Amino acid sequence: MAKSFKVKRVRSISGCTQTQIDTVNCLGLRKINTERTFKDNPAVRGQIRKIQHMVEVTVVK
Predict the structure, then answer these.
(1) CA 3 to chain CA centroid, nearest Å
(2) pTM of the predicted structure, to 2 decimals
(3) Can you name the residues that pair with 36 across neighbouring β-strands?
(4) Whole-angstrom Cα distance, residue 35 to residue 56?
(5) Which one of 1, 3, 5, 38 has the fewest beta carbons within 10 angstroms of its own beta carbon?
(6) Is the CA virtual torsion 47, 7, 10, 32 positive or negative?
(7) Tens of pLDDT, residues 2-45
């Protein structure tokens, strides 16, 4: 398993469901091209999976 993920938002939230919008905001990806690093755990993996069409994920070791 990876130690952490670097998540970058690349798409707009227009046309998304409210739960997807809440997930993006909860992860702190408020604007396009915002990057955050998260530790690998099941909760973060689930959040990333929910918005996988709006983000780019890079594995950081």
Answers:
(1) 16
(2) 0.87
(3) 7
(4) 9
(5) 1
(6) positive
(7) 689 999 999 999 999 999 999 999 999 999 999 999 999 999 99
